[in-house]
Specification:
4 strands, globular, single chain, alpha+beta, Alpha-Beta Plaits, about 40% helix
Length: about 120
C-alpha cells in the first residue's frame, strides 16, 4: 500500500509539474508618426522589461502581422515581434506580464499589445 501511495504521489507531482501556461505577446513595430520601433529600442525594451519578467527565458520571433484599425477602418500591415514564454502562471506573474504591454504601449505610442495564454504540457526530450 505504501508503495502505491508513493507511486501515486510521484505521478501526481510529475504530471502537475508539466502543466504550464504558454504566453504569446505580439508587439507591432509601426508608430503613429510613420516611423518604426528601432532594433536598438527593441533590444533595450526587451532587456529592461521582457527579460526581467521572463527570467527563465523566452523566444523572440520577427514576424509580419495585420490587424483592423477601428479608427481608420483599415487593415494595418506591419512588422512585429512575437515573444513566447512558458511559465507556471500565478496572479503575480500575470500582472507582471500585463506590465510589459503597458510599458510598450506607453514608450512606443501603441494602441495595444496582443496577449494569448494557453495551457502547455512540457516534455523535455
Amino acid at each position: 500500500m505504501r508503495l502505491f501511495l508513493l507511486f501515486a504521489l510521484v505521478c501526481f507531482t510529475a504530471c502537475s509539474a508539466s502543466k504550464m501556461t504558454q504566453t504569446d505577446l505580439y508587439f507591432g513595430q509601426s508608430k503613429p508618426d510613420g516611423t518604426y520601433v528601432s532594433a536598438k529600442d527593441w533590444e533595450e525594451f526587451s532587456a529592461k522589461y521582457i527579460c526581467s519578467v521572463f527570467k527563465e527565458g523566452s523566444s523572440v520571433l520577427a514576424s509580419n502581422g495585420n490587424w483592423y484599425d477601428t479608427a481608420s477602418k483599415k487593415i494595418i500591415v506591419e512588422p512585429s515581434w512575437l515573444v513566447i514564454s512558458v511559465n507556471r502562471m500565478t496572479p503575480e506573474l500575470s500582472k507582471r506580464i500585463d506590465s510589459i504591454g503597458y510599458w510598450y504601449k506607453k514608450k512606443f505610442y501603441q494602441q495595444s499589445v496582443l496577449r494569448v495564454d494557453k495551457r502547455a504540457k512540457l516534455l523535455f526530450l
